[in-house]
Amino acid sequence: MKRRGVFAALLAAMLWTVPLSGAHADARHASAKTVKVTGEIIDSWCYLTEIMYPLGTAHHQCAVWCAAGGIPVGILSDDGTPYILLSFQDNGQSVANPALLDLQTHHVVLEGQAFERDGMHYLVADRVVEDHGITNMTHEDYGIQPFGE
Amino acid sequence: MRAMMAILSLVLSAAWTAGAIAAESWGLPEEEETRFEAKVVDALCELTGDCAQRCGGGKRQLALLTGEGELILPLKNVVPFAGTTVELLEFCGKRVVADGLFSTNRGVKVFALQFVREAPDGKWRRANRFAGQWAAANGVDPKSKTAQQWFRNDASVMKAIERDGKLGTGE
Beta strands of chain A (E only): which ranges? Predict the structure, then answer.
């Protein structure tokens, strides 16, 4: 009887613990939304601070420099929302990821999970649905940023 | 008199030390000099639960999680065109004091890390470790022009620019 009581108490404790740890995980991790984001791959720092003209061909070389230096790469959706890419094609490497260097400035459609936390939008990009290449020809108006060469 | 001089020298020394690590203005939009304490976390792990050993060992973006639960993603260190993973990696899972600039623009607040130390009273370090690490990895003198202009001399950059041109269009 005593043994059965201990077993019941252990079972009750386990059942109690499972939903609690689930609730903890939900509270800690932001809720994801599966999305398709259409837009230009950007350098987040130059775009968000506007320390120079940050888009298209005018900024391509600088965007490659920044991606290689580990500044977060983002995508500026056509609706104007900037997302930070934290993972790309099942690769958690978001610092100087060669695949992201190659995709800089391209206009693409990415599919993945979007998160929002403390005013910043993040994207875990599972796959490139479409790659339209570089379509934003800004160099005629803005030259080559930031040094003109 | 001697005691007064000692106190004065202590005060001046403290002021100099504080001044030496104070955030420097970069003229950013809605710029705000800031210093706060936070835990260094793997941003992907914090948001999704997809966690890696040692915060990804330098391959993942690191973020700063404050005691109030605010997640701050630092975008920039003090080296031209470089980010902050190299500066924060050794503090993975630890609390740091971060000193730098907030800038709010286009509806988003971003953070540039200029100085960092382990909390509460570790030694201040300028967030410029990237330059030395790049120089060491490429076998060049960290004070050389090659290292200072790392962004023009990095193998991955050179490969991309040679292939696609400065405009990215192949021209």
Answer: 33-43, 73-77, 82-88, 107-117, 120-131
ipTM here: 0.89
Which chain B residues contact residue A102 at CB under 8 A?
Answer: 160
**What phi and psi, each to the nearest 5 degrees, are found at residue B158?**
-60, -40
In sequence order, the 6+-apart residues with CB closer than 8 A to the CB of B110 are A44, A45, A48, A49, B73, B75, B76, B102, B103, B104
**Contact present, A97 and A88 (Cβ < 8 Å):** yes
Tell whether A64 and A131 lie within a shared domain: yes
A148 within some domain: no
Sign, CA torsion B82/B167/A126/A28: positive
List A residues 90-149 in contact with B (Cβ-Cβ < 8 A): 92-98, 101-102, 104-105, 113, 115, 117-120, 122, 124, 134, 137, 139, 144, 149
Instruction: Check: CB of residue B47 under 8 Å from CB of residue A121.
Output: no
Under CATH, which number does the domain B26-127 receive?
2.40.50
Contacts of A58 in chain B (CB under 8 A): 167
Task: Identify whether residues A65 and A107 lie together within a single domain.
Answer: yes
Contact, A61 vs A140, CB < 8 A? no
Residues of chain A scoring pLDDT < 70: 1-30
Q: Hunting for tokens 């800031």 — which residue is that? A: B34
Q: Are both A2 and A13 inside the same structural domain? A: yes
pTM summary value:
0.86
What are the pLDDT digits (tens) for B12-46? 344 444 446 789 999 999 999 999 999 999 999 99
Residue pair B84/B74 in contact (Cβ under 8 Å)? The answer is yes
Q: Count of domains in chain A?
A: 2
Domain housing A12: 1-30
